[in-house]
Amino acid sequence: MSGVPPFAPKPSAYLYMEVADHIAARIAAGELPQDARLPGERELAEEYGVAIGTARRAVQELRERGLVITVPAKGTFVQRNTSEDTGKAAEA
């Protein structure tokens, strides 16, 4: 098991941020590796027990953090670790 605790949102936090934070933790733990396709927004909404709009906003938050990239008609994928890529480019 990855060690990511189950999803348990705090009542004082925005729900979309809680979902985004949980998915980010799954990415950090390697449960969702680089280039892995995230479930669709409907599937995420069902998995987390939230409205589809909440799931959509969580994915948007992950894009803003640079953790995922959405390719139209393909899906949303875990982004490469850009800090590693930047470090390698700087060394060259």
CATH C-level label: Mainly Alpha
Between the first and last Cα atoms, what is the distance in angstroms?
Answer: 37 Å
| Poorly predicted runs | 84-92
Secondary structure class reads mainly alpha
Query: What's the CATH architecture?
Result: Orthogonal Bundle
In CATH terms, the superfamily is: Winged helix-like DNA-binding domain superfamily/Winged helix DNA-binding domain
Helix-residue proportion = 40-55%
Number of strands: 2
- Main beta sheet, described? 2 strands, antiparallel
Strand content: 5-15%
How many separate domains?
1
Number of helices: 4
CA radius of gyration? 14 Å
- State the CATH topology: Arc Repressor Mutant, subunit A
Compact overview of the structure:
It holds the Pfam family GntR. Keywords: DNA-binding, Transcription, Transcription regulation. 49% of the residues lie in helices and 9% in strands.
Protein architecture, described:
Residues 13-81 form the HTH gntR-type domain. One of its GO terms (molecular function) is DNA binding. With 92 residues, the chain is mostly helical. The protein has a single domain, classed as Winged helix-like DNA-binding domain superfamily/Winged helix DNA-binding domain (Arc Repressor Mutant, subunit A), CATH 1.10.10.10. It contains four helices and two strands, in the order H-H-H-E-E-H. It has a two-stranded antiparallel ribbon with strand order 1-2. It is globular.
